[in-house]
Amino acid sequence: MSSAPSSSSSSMVCYNPECKELKPERPRKGWRLRTGELAELCDRCGSAYEEGRFCDSFHLNASGWRSCESCGKGVHCGCIVSSNAFTLLDPGGIECIACARKNVILSSNTAWPPSLFFHSTLPERLKDLSVKNWSQLAGSGPVPWRQAPSLFGSITPSEMHSRVPYEVDISAAINKLNAGERIGVTSLEKRKIEDFSERLQNGSLKLGARDALENGTAGRNCEDQINSCLNLGQQPSSLKEEPSTPQFGLSVPYASASETNGQVGAAGSNLRPTPPPMPKQFIGNLHSGVDSPGETQIRNARPRADARGRNQLLPRYWPRFTDQELQQISGDSNSVITPLFEKMLSASDAGRIGRLVLPKKCAEAYFPPISQPEGLPLKVQDAKGKEWIFQFRFWPNNNSRMYVLEGVTPCIQSMQLQAGDIVTFSRLEPEGKLVMGFRKASAATPSDQENETNRNGNGVSMQGDAELADPSSWSKVDKSGYIAKEVLGAKTLISRKRKSSTLGSKSKRLRIENEDMMELKLTWEEAQGLLRPPPNHVPSVVVIEGFEFEEYEDAPILGKPTIFSTDNMGEKIQWVQCEDCFKLRKLPADALLPSRWTCSDNSWDPERSSCSAAQELTAEELEDLIPQSVSVASKKMKAAKLDSENLEAMEGLDTLANLAIMGEGESLQSSSQATTKHPRHRPGCSCIVCIQPPSGKGPKHKQSCTCNVCLTVKRRFRTLMMRREKKQSEKEAETTRKKQQVSLPDKFDNESNLTSNTGNSPNQKREFHDGSDDEPSRMKSSTSPFKGQIDLNIQPEREDELSPGSDSGGIIKFVQDNPARYLRQQRLSSSGGSENSSGNLSQRDGGDAIGDKLNNGINLGRNLHDASDDHPSSISMKASASTTATG
DNA sequence: TCCGTGCATGGTT
DNA sequence: TAACCATGCACGG
């Protein structure tokens, strides 16, 4: 093979190095190359290949021939052409596929690998059967586990090559990676589909329906099989039973359109790193449970865990293993891995009780059968190779069973897992070991995120890779760090939480996330406030439930919030505030601004393209301007019909929508109010929230994304981390201070309260109070953190600024609540004085506040950061006031 | 009183 | 509506 052309399709000659013939115009398709292409052959070689005598014809003198242990037939094991034509036997030797299949059929329902039992309870007879068939099914030794599925159908060389993506051949995958041959899954799959379809048409591919009949899976199972074959796209083509449906869902290789509840089908074309759990050993390890004995599970793409057959694993339990994860689990060995299922840890799972509730179907499908509630000790290996013994058992529950793994606490602690993280179960072959891996919440939930932008062309989660490569990387950081890193994925967790409330409110970690997200929240109104119509586009205005929506045919632009107005000439203009000097600059109404805009960006007015230039706007004009902007901004909401071509805007929207949803998802009273007002329930609504696919679906930003939105968000999270640290130390300091100041006069107390109350203007929107329920102690401690002490830095109005929920509107809210202050600051600013010139901390602070206010709402993080650096105590105060206001 | 165990309950799908 | 499953809770050591 070494002399084979580098590319099958580019060469003019037959891909068979032994044959120098020119390829015909329509070359015959041969075996699957490592690049994913099919070898293109001349007619003669093609026929030989299709008839299964290629190696017989051309490799007779080559090394690598072995005989089938059962029928004695020679198989050219050392050759890619026949790589799928045999299976390795545990005792050694090989078996040709035909024999292997026969054996599988004979003992299809037995093969739970005894090695998984701490004390094997299987009868020897069964054990022997299991071992043999297990290994066959799993493939053993160096034979990648993808080979196993070939056992499921009638095997011809051709069909063996029609693999589906989840048939992960680790070594091949790694080779590809190393060779830089990262083939896009989509194109690869396309080729596969084409190939498959082609061979279906020319009849070279025998489909396996016959086998279903042969092995007794016809009848009831057959329906399942067909369903899964047709819809899931998870199976080897050899398993496909419906020749007339060549597409059989491969275009959606992971998501199942067939899921009875349809939730996965909605995932559309998103690809996942490792396809669904196509437990190749499905046949074998599906213990009978309530199944009738002798029944086989052959060809079910997903486990059929009980006799009702219609039941299938919920998509949320489908393992989403990346190649790297598989590799990580298998280590350097030649072991092959079968992803079984995964589960997001609930609070109970991760709690101290040490019971991990197992999804019933997964337990019944992948774990050994248990008939007694006491269950069995189960040996499980973690990714580091450490072995754990859990008690796999069940409780009777509502005429059903509830399966649990007991004693998982040490393991979970060792992995430093918490609620929301995901544990994965897979099986290592040929050892038959059960392997428990994990994925931290940030990298996890591809199911929720449907996040293909996090993945490279091969559908490999880079995020996940990093974590897998260093599983401790996450756990090593403190909560702040964790959250900071997790931020972009946080919404996922939230959406999940919103969906099912499966993550307990008692989870400390979740509380903290709530806290974070309170701070990160951006309401949908705020997010929409950041949208601008695309250039040269006049939005149409729709009124829904009393709210005006601008609707764009094109993608909206994310920009710095500005104040629209009309100048003396009657022309539409907008006012924007420089981020450096806070002066307002007049710009054309159609000017689109980046989220960070400074005077130097003022290309429209060179005279005012420097911060040193005076502000054009007089105080009076500003006064006129404010009510305008307030009313406009408070009512205006913008909707957009997205243009997928506008990636930048799309990404921004996405993030904003994430944030918006995050905010809503926090189930804050105030947020939910916004939610109820939001016309999301209107069919066809294209506002920023509604265009965001629910539950984390849809394109997301990559971790490395450097768009404005992401940068801003990241900045913000950095700030949050710092703030938290600061808060922590402040708290401690406050405690000390309080102790020292107990005896101070009441009037200070009163003043403090007064200040606090001032900050609690009912007009101000409260987005911050949610966590108060979760953290009463926090609330308590912050109720009056400055008791007995006057802090001149306290700016009640800045509370707003600190309230993430109110940052968007920024200037608007500020001026709404404090028009006089705003004007004063503007006067100072326009007179050229620095904000510090007054020497008055309050004023300076106010100036900052304006700056903050005028910033894009999502810039708040940086602003908060600045503010907290300057006046850490006031931050604490504001947060507390905010909390108190709604607590 | 604490903790582990086993079952019951109720929310979600 | 039934099944699933997260979690609450009673009970006993």
Describe this structure in words.
Helices cover 39% and strands 12% of the residues. It has a 7-stranded mixed β-sheet with strand order 7-12-13-9-10-11-8. It is built from 34 helices and 21 strands. It starts with 27 loop residues before the first strand and ends with a helix. Mean pLDDT is 50; it is low at 1-6, 104-311, 444-528, 552-556, 627-703 and 742-887. Strand 18 and strand 19 (572-577) form a beta hairpin. The chain is of the alpha+beta class and 887 residues long. The chain is flat. Among the domains are: 1-55, no CATH class; 316-502, DNA-binding pseudobarrel domain (At1g16640 B3 domain); 524-696, no CATH class; 712-886, no CATH class. The protein binds a DNA duplex (13 and 13 nucleotides) through helix 12, strand 10 and strand 11. Its main location: nucleus. Residues 727-737, 764-778, 863-872 have a biased composition (Basic and acidic residues). It is found in: Nucleus.
SS summary, helix count: 34
Helix content: 25-40%
* Overall mean confidence score, pLDDT: 50
CATH class of the domain at 316-502: Mainly Beta
Domain CW-type: 569-619
Main location: nucleus
Region (Disordered): 260-281, 441-473, 724-813, 826-887
Keywords: DNA-binding, Metal-binding, Nucleus, Transcription, Transcription regulation, Zinc, Zinc-finger
Task: Give keywords.
12% strand; alpha+beta; 887 residues; disordered N terminus; 21 strands; seven-stranded mixed β-sheet; At1g16640 B3 domain; DNA-binding; single chain; three-stranded mixed β-sheet
